[in-house]
Amino acid sequence: MAHDPTLYNKDLAPVAAERRTWGMYNYASLWVAMSVCIPTYMLASGLIAGGMSWWQAIATILLGNLIVLIPMLLNAHAGAKYGIPFPVFVRASFGVKGANIPAVLRALVACGWFGIQTWIGGQAIYSMLKIMWPAAAQFPGGIWICFFAFWALNIAVIWRGIETIKFLEGIGAPFMLGIGLLLLWWITRQAGGLGPVLSAPSKFHTTAEFIRFFIPSLTGMVGFWATVALNIPDFTRYAKSQRAQMVGQALGLPAAMTLYSFIGVAVTSASAVLFGQAIWDPVELLGKFNQPLVAFIALIALLVATLNTNVAANVVSPSNDFSNLNPRRISFRTGGMITGVIGVLLMPWKLLGDFSAYIFGWLVGYSGLLGPIAGVMIADYFLVRRSRLKVTDLYRRNGLYEYDNGVNLRAVMALVAGIVVALLGLIIPQLRLLYDYAWFVGFGVAGLAYVALMQSADAPAELPEFEVES
Question: Which pTM value belongs to this model?
C-alpha cells in the first residue's frame, strides 16, 4: 500500500539492508566521541564542587550510566530490527499523529542542549583568542561573534548529513581521548601528582547529608543521556546487526563516560590545589594558564569534542522529529536549521548558571519529561507488542496505528500521569523525593499506567513478523 505523504519522506523511511553499515566500532566510537565533551566534564566537576570526594563522584556517574544503558539498549532494538527512526518508532505507541507529542518534547530538550554546547564552544574559541591574541579581550561583542561562528560550523556539518557525522565520530574519538589524558597528565603534574589531587575528602559529615545530594545527582546522571535513550533508533537503524549495536554501546557508553568523568574530577581537584578553589568550568580553568601552546591544544580538543557531541546527540534527533511534523515540507536538513534557531532562542547562557542549576535544574527537570516517554515506548514495544511491528502501517493513515484520529489517547494519558507525578515535588515540598527521582518515577508510573490502559484496548500483541521495505 502506498505511503501517506504526510507521514513519509526519504529521511524517515526504513533504512534498506544494504545501507546498514555501522558496526561495533562505529557505536563504541560514537559513545566515546559523544561522552568526551565539556558537559560530561562538568557533570564530574559539578559533583566535586557540590561536596563529593573523587571516588563518590565517579561511582555516581558510573552507576547512572549503567542504569541508563538499560532503556538505551531496549529502545535501540526496534531501530536495528526495522530500520526506523525514533519519531516513526514512537508512532506504534502514540499513534501516527500522536507521535508528534513525544517527538516535539524530545526535540525541544535537544534544542536546549544544542544551544548549551554551542555556547560552550563559542566560549572556548573566545578564551583561546584571548590567550593567543590578548587584544581580542578588548573587542566589543567578541564572545557573541565566537558563539555564532561556532554555531555556523555546526550548521555546516548538519547540512552535509549523517555520513559526515559518522566520519567525525570515527576519527575524532581516539584523538579526543588522547588529548584528555594529556591534559590530565599535565595539570596533575603541575599540582604535584595524583596524590595531592585526589586526597580531598568528602564534605558530607553524615550519611543523610550525602544521600540528600546523591539522589538528585544520580537522577541527573541518568537524565544526561535520557535524551539519546529515546532517539537511539536514529542511530541503530544503520546497524549491521543487533549484536553490533548492543556490544558497541555496552562497551562505549559506561567506559567512556567514567574515564572522561575521572579526567574532569582530577582536573577540577587539581584546580583546587593550584588556585585555592575548585573551578568546575574547564574553559574558565584553561583561561588561567598563561601558556599559549598548552591552552591552544586543549581548546582545539574541546572544540572538536563539542562539535562531535553536538551534531550527534543534539541534532540528529530533533531534525528527524521536526521532519515528522510535516514530512513533505521539512527534510532532515530543514529540521537541523530549525534546531539551530530554537537553540539560540532558548538562551543557553542562562541554562549554565552554576553547577546546581545545571545538574538539579536542567538535567533533573527535563528527565521528568523524558522518563515517562521511555516508559510508554518500552512497555508498548516489549510488553504489548512483543517487539513485533507492522512497518507499512507506521507510514499510512487508517492502519493499525491510527487509534483515535491518529492519536492513542491511552498513551497520552499515561505520559501526562508520569510527568505530573514526577514533577509534583516541585510544587509540594513534602513530595520533593518524587522530583529528586524524576526520571525513575516518571518511567515507572507512565509504563505501568500504559499497560493497564492498553489491557482494555484491542491491542495487537501477537502480530506476525513483517519484512522491512526498502
Answer: 0.82
* DSSP label at residue 193: S
8-state DSSP, 84: -
> Residues 354-363: pLDDT tens digits?
656 666 677 7
Alpha-carbon distance of 310 to 343, in angstroms, equals 11
Q: What is the tens place of the pLDDT at every residue in 236-254?
A: 999 999 999 999 999 999 9
Cβ-contact 114, 108 below 8 angstroms: no
What CA–CA distance (Å, rounded) separates 72 from 231? 9
Lookup: cell for 436: 529528586
H or E segment at 116?
helix 100-132
First to last CA, the chain: 14
Contact 48, 34 (CB under 8 A): no
How far, in Å, CA of 443 to CA of 138, rounded?
49
State the burial class of residue 353 (Cβ atoms within 10 Å of its Cβ: 0-12, 13-18, 19+). Answer: exposed
Report d(CA 126, CA 102) in Å as an integer: 36
Place of cell 538562551: 347
* Three-state SS annotation for 118-164: HHHHHHHHHHHHHHHCHHHHHCCCHHHHHHHHHHHHHHHHHHHCHHH
Cβ-contact 219, 437 below 8 angstroms: yes
Closest to 363 measured CA to CA, from 212, 253, 217: 217
Burial class (CB in 10 A: 0-12, 13-18, 19+), 425: buried
CB atoms within 10 A of CB 383: 15
Nearest CA to 31 out of 247, 281, 318, 180 is that of 247
Of 281, 271, 287, 279, nearest to 131 (Cα)? 287
What per-residue confidence (pLDDT) applies to 280? Answer: 64
Nearest to 355 by CA among 32, 3, 43, 16: 43
Which residue's C-alpha cell is 585526589? 198
Alpha-carbon gap, residue 130 to 152, rounded angstroms: 21
- pLDDT of the residue at 289: 64
Residue 199, helix vs strand vs coil: coil
Instruction: Tell me the C-alpha to C-alpha distance, in Å, between residue 80 and each of 85, 214, 369.
Output: 10, 35, 25
CATH H superfamily, domain 17-354: Hydantoin permease (1.10.4160.10)
Q: In the chain, what are the domain boundaries?
A: 17-354
Please work out, in degrees rounded to the nearest 5, the angle formed at the alpha carbon of residue 149 by the alpha carbons of 146 and 154: 125
